[in-house]
Amino acid sequence: MASPYAGAQPVSPAAAGHQTPAATAAGQQNHSLAFRVMRLSRPSLQPDPAALLRFDPRDVFLPEDALTSPDPSAAADFLHRLLHPADSATAVPGDFSFRDRFLLRDPADALALPGLLVLPQSFGAIYLGETFCSYISINNSSSFEARDVVIKAEIQTERQKILLLDTSKSPVESIRSGGRYDFIVEHDVKELGAHTLVCTALYNDGDGERKYLPQFFKFTVSNPLSVRTKVRTIKDITYLEACIENHTKSNLYMDQVDFEPAQQWRATRLEADEHPSAVKSAIGDLCKQPVLIRAGGGIYNYLYQLRSSSDESGQSKSEGSSILGKFQITWRTNLGEPGRLQTQNIHSTPTASKDVDLRATKVPPIIYVERPFMVNLCLTNQTDKTVGPFEVFLAQGMSNGERSVQINGLQKLVLPLVEAFESIKFDMSLVATQLGVQKISGITMYAVQEKKYYEPLPDIEIFVDAE
């Protein structure tokens, strides 16, 4: 019975790579045992090139309107005379119409697949996030029995060594002449670059000598996809765009692309509006179609909206606020082989921190000319110490013309001390002197003790109507 996994060609021990002097000396001995490694990977569907395009020779010999003419027998006679000499009495079978061109002779013709699975003919590419699965066989090619065989298999990378198999506590009692001992090892690939599968055997040869056999099998791990991000901040909202590109030779079906925000953020994915006829249900949410990213450079974009979390701890917001979070990505290939990656922390664009923040919280929706209106303001202390007092006023514009919006009443509002991480709310009375779309500009704050002016509040657009 065919297994769901198919064997690839084993990596040659001779081409395993550089060996240490001890390993070289061990390799010069006459060993009874030898390792053979075969990567376990799924078969592939091989399209039949002949079924991709059904070619009819009549397309070459007959004119364009031959099959659509009122007398199709004329086309048949023409083709008969062209393909067969005058002395041949053989008739040309077939239906001389376009209808015959679209008939499927076999159900597999619809997919251009012959119905067969093709085993990999090479070791293949290994990508980060996949599970490397290998079938290892240690063979006894001598005429003697090998006894008390201790087998070890490990993966070596530039950073670490991972032990996959160790039979030291329960050695294989014997491997007879012409026999073998087989086992399967698996490893979740979490590093890029060169990897070495090291297989060693310690055994008693036929003459009782204790021998040590090391063999090395090298392979390289590549990156299956890349994640490029862009961060934009508009007022209190941060937008994160992620572009995922497929670098493999196989289509990737993204089961999960989740952004895990840092503690101080709340993330919402923004998607295009669905068609009105789309039916949403609990079952539909559970059975979502995976996102297809095509092989060889296909891309897909994700957009997230980030807002500050409801936690009002100013200390947690002020520290480490540049970290937005990380992505958890899982996918499957054409035949269901899984993969999983986690990106590094994504950082926001660094911004200068403010010890005090002044903002407008509410502006009246209806404003009449030459009638006072109130603008609600909020002053927030973003430090761990008490600040203040402050003065808030409307700074004079650079132009000599009269302001369209002026302060009504006291020209300066005096605010008391503000405790650490606290806020105070207050109102400023203004009056508009001109109709139409106007701007409230120049709301400025001044720290009395520090004798420091802060940046004016951004302009606020209003519409002034007549009574």
From TrEMBL:
Comp. bias regions, Low complexity: 13-28
Domain Trafficking protein particle complex subunit 13 N-terminal residue range list: 31-221
Residues annotated as domain Trafficking protein particle complex subunit 13 middle: 225-346
Pfam family, one: TRAPPC13_N
Region ranges (Disordered): 1-28
Domain called Trafficking protein particle complex subunit 13 C-terminal: residue spans: 365-455
Gene Ontology terms: cellular component: TRAPPIII protein complex
InterPro entries xref list: TRAPPC13, TRAPPC13_C, TRAPPC13_M, TRAPPC13_N
Superkingdom of the source species: Eukaryota
Stored PANTHER family: TRAFFICKING PROTEIN PARTICLE COMPLEX SUBUNIT 13
Family in the record: Belongs to the TRAPPC13 family.
Name this protein carries in UniProt: Trafficking protein particle complex subunit 13
Source species of the chain: Eragrostis curvula (weeping love grass)
